[in-house]
Amino acid sequence: NAGVTQTPKFQVLKTGQSMTLQCAQDMNHNSMYWYRQDPGMGLRLIYYSASEGTTDKGEVPNGYNVSRLNKREFSLRLESAAPSQTSVYFCASSRHQPQHFGDGTRLSIL
Amino acid sequence: TQLLEQSPQFLSIQEGENLTVYCNSSSVFSSLQWYRQEPGEGPVLLVTVVTGGEVKKLKRLTFQFGDARKDSSLHITAAQPGDTGLYLCAGFMDSNYQLIWGAGTKLIIKP
Q1: Interior CA angle at A42 toward A37 and A45, to 5°?
Q2: Tens-digit pLDDT profile for residues A67-76
Q3: Which residue of A has its CA nearest to B6?
Q4: Chain B closest CA to A41's CA: distance in Å?
Q5: Residues of B with CB below 8 A from A103's CB?
Q6: 3-class DSSP assignment, residue A51
Q7: How many CB atoms lie within 10 A of CB A67?
Q8: Is the backbone of residue B40 left (phi > 0), alpha (psi -120 to 50) or beta?
Q9: A5, closest residue in chain B (CA to CA)
Q10: B103, A101: Cβ pair inside 8 Å?
Q11: Consecutive sets of 10 residues in chain B, 111 residues long: mean pLDDT of each?
Q12: Could you give the CA distance from residue B30 to residue B51 in angstroms, rounded to a whole number?
């Protein structure tokens, strides 16, 4: 009963490096989301995909790109990492509501 | 900008005490969800309230949705150390199918 699986769990990058965070869900959900979580700021939506083949910007999309590879997989890419992107990143999926979350990727940009 | 203000941000109390967490907004939500998050894990849904004035109970936790569907509260009776965690509220808006998240309440229950 995997639910939402995120890889990697931890990553340290240098400023300017690129990286792709992976997310896969096995619940046959149409919608998938990427959030970042910073202390005292709750969850902020980066991008979401309402269905396979569509993606839309959320509240804080700058510096990120996404790909909805198929119904199961939704990846988040940092093209040129910046220290301000140090955060915990969560992927979530849903049929309608509520959202089901992975355990997060802890990303540090030095 | 749609905001959901959650208070308090941090609460540390003794085992056996009662507490209430509040979420307030000027926006009307079609439903409001409460999640709990433990360190190293993602948020997990506790309850969804849908109807204005609705009250739901989950053991020692009581959730209430305001009559105007703009606010909600979580009341914990006789808190236990196992209640320790980050509690998040999130309001769902039909207009854009988005969840608006509160900043969270970090709750510590001391034995």
Answers
A1: 65
A2: 998 999 999 9
A3: A42
A4: 5
A5: 40-42
A6: coil
A7: 14
A8: left
A9: B42
A10: no
A11: 86 97 94 94 95 96 96 97 96 82 95 94
A12: 8
Report the residue of chain A nearest B33, measured CA to CA.
Answer: A98
CA-CA-CA-CA torsion sign (B20, B22, B28, B29)? negative
The tokens for B41 are: 């894990």
* Residue at token pair 């409001």: B32
Give how far the C-alpha of residue B80 lies from the chain's centroid of Cα atoms, to the nearest Å. Answer: 17
Given an 8 Å threshold on Cβ–Cβ distance, is A41 in contact with B97?
no
Q: Which of A103, A81, A86 is nearest to A4 (CA)?
A: A103
**DSSP annotation of A71:** S
Q: State the Cα–Cα distance between residues A51 and A34, nearest whole angstrom.
A: 14
